[in-house]
Glycosyltransferase
Amino acid sequence: MTLLVISPDYASHLLPLATLATAWRDRGDDVVVASGPATSSIVSSFGFRWAELRLGRGSNPGTIRAEEQPAGEDDSLRGFFDATRQGLVETLAYQASQRTTDLLWRPVDTASAVLKVIGEVRPDAVIVDHLAFTARLALQAAGIQHADVVLGHPTALPIAEEVYGYPTSWPRAFEPDRDALERLRHSCEAVRDRFTAQWNDALRVLNPAAIPTSDAFAEHGDTLLLNYPGQLHDPERTALLPKHAFLGSAVRDEPTDPEVDAWLSGGGAPIVYVSFGSFLSVRSDVLSRVAHALRPLDVRVALAIGSADRRELGELPDTWLVREFLPQVTLLKHSVLAVTHGGNNSVTEAATAGVPMLVLPFSTDQFAGAEAIESRGYGLALAPNTASVDELRTAVESLLTATELRDRSRLLGAELRALPGRDRAHEALSS
C-alpha cells in the first residue's frame, strides 16, 4: 500500500509525522511525504519519497530566524517574538490577529495543489497535520478519508464551548487580567468567525455541494490521532472528544553523534537538558536566566541555544554541552530534568523518557500543556518573563529532590515506551 503524509514545511511538525509513518515503512509499505523544500532532506533521511507541496509562506528546517523568512513572514515572526515579551494575553492576541493569513494561505490554489498531489500519488491512506488547514479543507471538499494528527495539546481541537486560541487553562504562575482575558475571548471569537467564512468560501469553490461549517477550527478528519499522552489529559475533557486515539508520543530514532556520545560517557553530575525549541530559543534573555540559575548547582547541562544570541548567555562552564542544535531524544534518555518551553515534541519526548519537566510556556497551547504537567504531578511551571534566577534555581532544586514526582515520571515513561505512538497510529488506521 501507499501512505501519503501531508506536513507543513516545518521540521518540528514533520519529524513526529515522519516517525509515525515509519510504522508503514518498516512493514514494507510505500511512504510519500508532501511538504516544502526546506524539509525535503528530513524526508530523505527517513527513506521516504518526497512530493513538493507548499502549505504556507514560512518554513523551518530546524531553527527558525526571522531574517531567513520571505517578506511578510519575517515581520510576522518579529511581531510574535515581541509579543512573547509582553505576556500570555498579548501573545495569544497577536497570534489570533495573524491566524487568517497563516493558517489558510491561498486556500483555493493550495487546496488544488493538494488534490494534484493526491492524484499523482494515488495513496491508499492519508495522514495530515491538523494545523494544515488548507490540506484538510481540500480532503474534506473532495470526500477523501484521512487521519488527522493533532501535534500539540488536545485543546488545539476546540470542543463544547471552547474557542480556538483562547486558553482553557494556565499554570498558577500566570495571573492574567480578567478584563484583558475577556477582550481576548471576543477577539478569538471574531477571528473564528472570519476564519470560518474564509473556509466556507473556499469550500464552496472547491465543492459547491459541500455543507458549510459553523466553526472551521472544530473540523477534524475521519480518524483523530492525538500526539499526546492520555495520562496528561483531563478525563472530563477526554469524555467530550470525538472518536480518537491518544498516541502518547512519536519519538524518533536519532543518528549517533560522536561529540554527544563522548560527553555522555564522561560521567559526572546528573544531566539537565535545556531547550526552548526551534522558535522560542530566540528568547535568549530567558535562556540566560536559566543558565545563571543552573551554574552553581551540581549538574551537567546540555543546552540547545537554537537562534539565541550566544553572547547574552555569558561565560558557561566547560563541563556543559552547548550547541545550536542537540539530539534531544538521545539526551533526554540520560537526563534527570528537562527545562522546556512546553512544545509538543519536547513534552512528549520528555514524558516518554520519564523525565520531570520545568516548563516556561510562551504561547499557544503551551499554557494548557504546562498546567497539565504541573497539576498532574510531572513537573513545575513558571512564567518565563517574570521568573527570577533565584526562583528558577529553587524550582530546579525542588524537582531534583522530588522523589515521588520522579517515580511518577518514570512510570509514565515506561507506559509510553511499552506501545510506541507509531504503532498506536498504525493500529488506529488499520482497525
